[in-house]
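User: Before I run my own analysis I want an independent prediction to cross-check against. Here's the chain; please return only the structure tokens and, at the end, one sentence I can use as a sanity check.
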Amino acid sequence: MLRIFVVSILFLVTAVSVLLVVLTGPGWWVSVAIFAALLVLAIADVTQKRHSILRNYPVIGHLRFALEYIRPELQQYFIERNYDGRPFDRDTRSLIYERAKGTNQEQAFGTERDVNEVGYEYLVHSTAPLEPPKDPPRMRIGGPDCTQPYEMALLNVSAMSFGALSSNAILALNKGAALGGFAHDTGEGGLTEYHLRHGGDLVWEIGSGYFGARTKDGEFDPTMFAEKAAHPSVKCLSLKLSQGAKPGIGGVLPASKVTAEIAKARNVPEGVKCVSPAAHKVFGTPRELIRFMATMRELAQGKPVGFKLCVGSRTDVLAICKAMLAEGVTPDFIIVDGSEGGTGAAPMEYEDHMGTPLTEGLMLVHNALVGTGLRDRIRVGASGKVATGTDIVKRIIQGADYTNAARAMMMATGCIQSQRCHTNHCPVGVATQDPRRARALDVENKSIRVQRFQEATVSEALRMMASIGAAGPEQLTPRMLRRRIGHTNTKSYAELYEWMAPGELLAQVPEAWAEDWATANPDSFAAQPGRNGRALQ
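Assistant: Structure tokens:
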């Protein structure tokens, strides 16, 4: 390991310098002083708990902080040129780190963004702004069939599995959630001791591999599911249909990474390639999906259940809504994941070209639920590059009730976006299963940063709502968010997009939705044949 090597080399050269002083005279005292100082610094780096990168890279890790100190010029030149546009920009990264550390978040000399650029969005402040509420509001998750509703925070930890993240990263995220009173989504990698140790509220996610609740041949195991769902830390159950970064495909964990610990968590054989299929086995139609929602809720003794998806066609969303109406059963929540959502590893074409972006997907789901008269029974969560208070406000305006963040929460635990998640060589111990690298992440320190980041971000979102003139999320409207559509023209979201009236799809279907509504079939996800013989999408 590099830290052992650095300390050993410095100890050796210091000892050699002392020996040369003894043998040849005092001319070597300068070398002794320099190498001894570096040795002390190296020992201090590997024993401190604040900076993971210094624990893994003693002495040389200070170069990164030197670049931070003289930013933006050199840090932007040397670091941002390694980024391909998918990570957060420099301003967002700085904001996340500063909030996590509890340091100053003000900026001199105003905006660095081009406010005249087409596509620029901004919030409309009020001439009579309000004071933000003292206590952050919470969203009750639980429809009419739910007997154990949950009060969800405005910002929560999005789905990230043990396996993708290290055990220490999971521990830090969960303890941060426990400290701050917000929810932690487990991801589809199973419900582990690291999720349960600190007692943070959990959304247990089940994917198409049914990890942690599966039989030996990969089928869903209702008995195992019911036993784990009964744990008091499990507050909600989420079925993953698709993921924003790679919608339409499952995942593969190489055999070399399926350790005994991960095999136990996922209930799969150790040392054997772990495959998450593209499609689910427990349902094949919208109606079967909704029936399985009812089964999950029954097995979970009335706890809230829902599903997560990256939106594909509008026809599929409407087919699910028709199935809800036909069965008289609704999930308690739906999480909309945008195609801009991140992941530790995904095919480049999928990251760049597959799936609906969060803005369009979120408004589609919201309007479909409103139009079918189901919106008041179902809460909607939004995930996909959520990092700031502005993101929270925008997503609520676009139809969400609450938001989830993954990358921003990773950065609060110390992630520096080195983009080496898939190599198992994460330099700060966040996205790795190498115990030596993971050990650099101090759980106590990073959990406080996670809690601090969430609290500060929600607080800023509430302050922005108050500046708009809204006393809370329920008073936000599409007119409060505007986009520049030309160099001389801007329009609000109320003008740019069509918004459904409650029950409108059941009364008089708008022309723009008519073909998709007619095509949507509660008994099939496949598009129905069109008049020209082709499938209508």
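Sanity check: Residues 19 and 28 are 9 Å apart (CA to CA).
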